């Protein structure tokens, strides 16, 4: 199957602007930006508010660049999968060449601006994040191994480290913990999606875990990762990086994650499995936001309490 690439499909300036915005994967970008913002706020030290805004903006642009380059490379399989068939390139609203040029420009601009506004350590980490997502994950792992999400998930876990480095010029245990939470969340999140979309992945030739090792093994691995995630999510409390507010939220959301995974593992037939996989996927969409918001609220509450004493 081939995808449409017809510039005549462009219907005016407004549609073209919307299509370029779609290349940025704004829904994915929003979570990336938020976790980077949390890393920046929690980092020790001070960063000029204007420079902090610029740093978060650079992360957003870099995430958008990664999305555009991913769509450029994956245009062939995007046209096959129902979840991605309406993206701008398969629909012929943006050409692959335009998406490539757009993505490369945004990537270079975001890294350069990050280096000039904050420090080159943060810029280097941001550049590596883009490289990891586009080259290591999209071009290499995604089509070659069922571990694509496990290893490639690191790309989505770097943003809080980038935010931390923008302030401190380095990384630390705290930023590594935030990285680990996102890294461990990624496999159960995407494998739940793959369980009820495995027909799409099979048709596109993407070796997602359910298509390669089967549904039962995938559900067992989702269960294992969910338990490990729930434990690691308590690390900020255990290391003193966060306080009781975070501990209560992280403990509750972690137990809920394990409960959803357990229900999925115990599903008795294919239809029930797909329903429960969809339920876990939907829950996982909000999980990271809630956990990172809890880190932020806990820090603000601690500072306010400290100021009152």
From TrEMBL:
MF annotations from Gene Ontology: protoheme IX farnesyltransferase activity
UniProt keywords, alphabetically: Cell membrane, Heme biosynthesis, Membrane, Transferase, Transmembrane, Transmembrane helix
Top-level division of the source organism's lineage: Bacteria
Enzyme Commission no: 2.5.1.141
Pathway membership: Porphyrin-containing compound metabolism; heme O biosynthesis; heme O from protoheme: step 1/1
GO cellular component assignments: plasma membrane
Principal place of residence: membrane
InterPro entries attached to this UniProt entry: Protohaem_IX_farnesylTrfase, UbiA_prenyltransferase, UbiA_prenylTrfase_CS, UbiA_sf
PANTHER family membership: 4-HYDROXYBENZOATE SOLANESYLTRANSFERASE, PROTOHEME IX FARNESYLTRANSFERASE, MITOCHONDRIAL
Family the UniProt entry places it in: Belongs to the UbiA prenyltransferase family. Protoheme IX farnesyltransferase subfamily.
Function (record text): Converts heme B (protoheme IX) to heme O by substitution of the vinyl group on carbon 2 of heme B porphyrin ring with a hydroxyethyl farnesyl side group.
UniProt name for this protein: Protoheme IX farnesyltransferase
Species per Swiss-Prot/TrEMBL record: Devosia pacifica
Organism lineage string: Bacteria, Pseudomonadati, Pseudomonadota, Alphaproteobacteria, Hyphomicrobiales
């Amino acid at each position: 199957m081939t995808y449409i690439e017809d510039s005549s499909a462009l219907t005016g300036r407004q549609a073209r602007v919307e299509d370029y915005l779609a290349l940025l994967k704004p829904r994915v970008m929003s979570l990336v930006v938020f976790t980077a913002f949390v890393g920046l706020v929690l980092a020790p030290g001070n960063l000029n508010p204007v420079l902090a805004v610029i740093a978060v903006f650079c992360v957003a642009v870099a995430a958008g660049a990664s999305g555009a380059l991913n769509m450029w490379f994956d245009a062939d399989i995007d046209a096959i999968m129902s979840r991605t068939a309406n993206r701008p390139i398969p629909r012929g609203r943006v050409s692959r060449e335009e998406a490539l040029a757009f993505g490369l420009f945004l990537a270079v601009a975001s890294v350069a601006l990050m280096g000039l506004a904050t420090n080159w350590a943060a810029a280097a980490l941001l550049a590596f994040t883009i490289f990891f997502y586009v080259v290591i994950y999209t071009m290499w792992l995604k089509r070659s191994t069922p571990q694509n999400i496990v290893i490639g998930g690191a790309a989505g876990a770097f943003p809080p480290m980038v935010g931390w480095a923008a302030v401190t010029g380095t990384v630390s245990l705290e930023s590594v913990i935030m990285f680990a939470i996102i890294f461990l969340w990624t496999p159960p999140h995407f494998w739940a999606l793959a369980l009820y979309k495995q027909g799409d992945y099979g048709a596109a030739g993407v070796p997602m875990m359910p298509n390669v090792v089967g549904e039962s093994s995938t559900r067992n691995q989702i269960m294992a990762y969910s338990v490990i995630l729930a434990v690691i999510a308590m690390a900020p409390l255990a290391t003193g990086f966060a306080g009781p507010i975070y501990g209560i939220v992280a403990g509750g959301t972690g137990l809920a994650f394990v409960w959803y995974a357990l229900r999925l593992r115990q599903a008795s037939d294919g239809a029930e499995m797909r329903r429960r996989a969809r339920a876990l996927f939907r829950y996982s969409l909000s999980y990271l936001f809630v956990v990172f918001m809890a880190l932020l609220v806990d820090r603000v509450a601690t500072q306010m309490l400290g100021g009152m004493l």
